[in-house]
Amino acid sequence: MEARAVWQISGKPVSRFYGELFLQYGIALIGPGDTGPWSVETVNDTRDGKFVRRFATEVHPGEIVLLRKGTSRICAVGIVAGDYEYFNQFDDVNGWDLQHGRRVRWCRLPAEYSFGKAVFGANPTRLSRVWNAEVIDYAMRFVSSAPTHWQTASLPKLPSEEAPLDNVPDYLREIVAHVNDLRPLFSDRGSFGDPPTEDELIVHLAVPFLRALGWPPERIAVKWRYVDVMLFATLPRTPENSFLIIEAKRLGTGVEGALEQAKAYVAALGVARDVVVTDGIRYRLYSCNAGFTPVAYANLLRLKVPALLLFNKMRRP
Fold this sequence. Notes:
- Helices cover 26% and strands 25% of the residues.
- By secondary structure, it is α+β, with helices and mostly antiparallel strands.
- It folds into two domains: 6-151, ph1033 like fold; 170-314, tt1808, chain A.
């Protein structure tokens, strides 16, 4: 009889880590998923397609899955609890389209476990079967050791799918169309060349977005006291008159990774201000008075109804 398979799945880099979502909802996800559900009729010879096929056909309920961080560490052990499904509510997870999924009963480790060396390979793929004897032994001993109640616990409820924003506000239609035109070009290295820098994204995307939200040029400061973009409720442009701090990241690096830098600017400013992190396309708002909890989000390429909250909070008061 074939031994119980052990798999590893990635939660992606720290700046865009979505492993916490796996643990929160009892799920494992893989992308890209925008092409729709996988099926035996699907013909896809790309590298991404092979991973999706493997996830859909080779992983089986009852097998072990490890939530990997880097090349040598894991943060959770899980048991696959269901067949392949397509979950459209995960079409925008920190900018990733991760609709291909399986339910998993996870057990979060009290602390990340390190094997002390690159047991998953120097450049591990997002999903693969584990053949390293040390890792397999760890996984087998873990699921056989008490406590084991997590292996039969009820699965968490999945989030509801957010409704698309079919009626884009009139004042945003031009910038939304602009983003939709530019994003495919930015990704085409052959036609475009090197990807745009943070400063280019600020000039060509973020500032036009702010102008559409009603902010006049004199209240939009770029590179003001090292802050990428500072909005001012009134003039003169002093810390006391500031309204919102905006920190930018390059496309593909994950806007969430900009939060720590933005928090440092808030501390240096000496006044409590909310923070927005962006790549010109995705905007996430954090509340300073709520411990920098994320409170609003919009992706101009995937507009959902909750994006209206971010637009309202960022519009000129």
